[in-house]
Amino acid sequence: MPRERKHGTPPTLLVTGCNGQIGFELSRSLAPLGRVVALDRAACNLADLDQMRGVVRDIAPDIIVNAAAYTAVDKAEGDAELAFAINGIAPGVLAEEASVLGAMLVHYSTDYVFDGTKDGAYTETDTPDPISVYGQSKLAGEAAVLASEARALVVRTSWVFGSHGNNFAKTMLKLGCERERLRVVADQFGAPTSAALVADVTAQILARHWIFGDRTEFPDGLYHLTASGATNWHAYAQEVLRQAGTLGVSLKAAPTCVEPIVSADYPLPARRPANSRLATAKLCQTFGIHLPAWRDGLHSVMPQLIAQLPRS
């Protein structure tokens, strides 16, 4: 059962991975809800379970939002032990600590838990079948959380981008300023999703249904959260360049100079799902959430990406 707070006492929210794309945005979006303790890897290392347990017990948060993860998809193929420690084991330990505290746990997962062979968008009831070590480790983590006694929200998202950290949109913008032609994979499909959207929806759900709602009736469990619509990496790259050009960026590569290629033309250590589309109807209907189009999210963050370009 959720523990009761003294009347008028704001909740304490612990955010792990505060230097990641989503973690960075969570520090902003959660600030109006209570006291936010946002920790980086040095302060809360998910690979060090003893340290992590000690941090959680010292802070005794009302809500834990786990945005920390091992996200080096290709490196994970040769570093499975660390990937599973951070992505697979640590989330289950956080869930154990949350259960003891009577705290809520929010944990983020990924489209990589699926093999990408389905024709349509994946729902929460589809059977996962990851094809990479990264996907396997993330599936282990979400399974541990969902099997625990903690009140938990497991949120799968995809193709995350933002103004903070490294991501595809930032890379394409930089390359578009440096090169006259780009070659980008066109046979993998998904929904580019801004880190700000993930953080804002998380804050909205926690505020409405946990902090100020009936927590005993909170509809916890597994949900998909992505921007609306879908595209492929090639068309996504073209849209990055199109929006940048509209905003006055001097590009060497126009959108028409992005050449489509197939995944086999750009081999990587880890296999990627060809279809990363996630159905979001459950989240939208359960929590009354409207999810904007992925192009809108890109448009919102583009000025910040442009501001980070090297000055000529």
Characterization of this structure:
The protein is of the alpha/beta class and 312 residues long. It has 9 helices and 12 strands. The chain has helices at 21-29, 49-59, 80-101, 133-147, 168-178, 195-211, 233-246, 281-287, 294-307, and strands at 12-16, 35-39, 63-66, 104-110, 151-157, 160-161, 182-185, 189-190, 193-194, 221-224, 231-232, 258-261. Strand 3, helix 3 (80-101) and strand 4 form a beta-alpha-beta unit. Helix 5 crosses helix 7 (233-246). This is dTDP-4-dehydrorhamnose reductase. Pathway: Carbohydrate biosynthesis; dTDP-L-rhamnose biosynthesis.
Outline of the structure:
With 312 residues, this protein is of the alpha/beta class.
Secondary-structure topology with pairs:
Blueprint: E1 12-16, H1 21-29, E2 35-39, H2 49-59, E3 63-66, H3 80-101, E4 104-110, H4 133-147, E5 151-157, E6 160-161, H5 168-178, E7 182-185, E8 189-190, E9 193-194, H6 195-211, E10 221-224, E11 231-232, H7 233-246, E12 258-261, H8 281-287, H9 294-307
Parallel strand pairs: 1-2, 1-3, 3-4, 4-5, 5-10, 6-9, 7-12
Antiparallel strand pairs: 8-11
Helix pairs in contact: 1-6, 2-3, 3-4, 5-7, 7-9
